[in-house]
Design brief:
mainly alpha; 12 helices; transmembrane; transmembrane helix; diacylglycerol O-acyltransferase activity
Length: about 270
């Protein structure tokens, strides 16, 4: 048993306070005890919360000022299947999409989780690694969101491998569940769950990308890792988030927005 667990061995950990601490601690994997800091640095907490506020305002401004106009100007291009202009819109959206995502990533993983960890005196502050240097898609998914990655490894991947399933089947199970959760996360707010399925399919497509980039990561020369990192960034900044944003925005507009009203006006018998 690790030395830290001896501070709160079973069944002493079966208490309401222990459960409540786990609920609020910035981790998804339960342990009887966690590394703890000695005191709360309230100035540190205030700085991190200030960062969250400023970045939230920036995300709102960037979304309203830059992302929304690009999305709105893409509706007619998608409706007419103008591939050239769709690609141009996609490239333009990729820039602001990346900026907004990076701001959101910093606000959540660097600022908010560190503030929460400080208030909870939670000692393990390893919420992410240098995912931007990922030489493969597999490395990216293991390093950009370590609390979720550790949860899937502890509760799905490792138990399946331990019961005789192959690592590949365990990985498929992890990404399938992750795909379902991504589809729910995006599809419910846009009222397009399941029927569009871009988030779901996008997560499942990570498996072949992982298969392609993993051998590049294992190459002894830096060239392979560089190519793998380029594949990651291309799939991340162009083929991933911007494309999904365009599709879900268009689908929502087709149901409830301007595209829906235009379709109603042009459909015989609706006037």
């Amino acid at each position: 048993m690790p030395e830290i667990f001896q501070k709160c061995p079973y069944p002493e950990n079966i208490t309401m306070s222990n459960l409540v601490y786990f609920w609020w601690a910035p981790t998804l994997v339960y342990q009887p005890a966690y590394p703890r800091t000695e005191k709360i640095r309230w100035i540190f907490v205030a700085k991190r919360l200030g960062e969250v506020f400023c970045l939230s305002v920036f995300i709102w401004f960037a979304s309203a000022q830059y992302a929304a106009p690009v999305l709105l100007n893409s509706l007619d291009k998608i409706a007419s299947l103008d591939i050239t202009n769709i690609m141009e819109r996609l490239m333009k959206l990729s820039t602001i999409s990346l900026v907004i995502w990076l701001a959101g990533f910093f606000a959540l993983f660097q600022s908010f989780l560190n503030a929460l960890a400080e208030v909870m005196r939670f000692g393990d502050r390893s919420f992410y690694d240098d995912w931007w240097n990922s030489p493969s898609l597999g490395t990216y998914w293991r390093t950009w969101n370590k609390p979720v990655s550790q949860y899937f490894r502890r509760h799905i991947y490792s138990p399946m491998v331990g019961r005789g399933w192959s690592p590949f089947v365990a990985s498929v199970a992890v990404f399938f569940l992750s795909a379902v959760l991504h589809e729910v996360l995006v599809g419910v707010p846009t009222h397009n769950i399941i029927e569009l399925g871009v988030a779901f399919l996008g997560m499942l497509l990570q498996l072949p990308l992982i298969a392609i980039t993993t051998p590049l990561e294992k190459m002894k020369t830096p060239t392979g890792r560089m190519i793998g990192n380029c594949i990651f960034w291309i799939s991340f900044t162009i083929l991933g988030q911007p494309f999904a944003a365009l599709m879900y925005f268009y689908a929502w507009q087709a149901k409830y927005g301007s595209v829906s009203r235009q379709m109603a006006l042009t459909t015989p018998g609706t006037l």
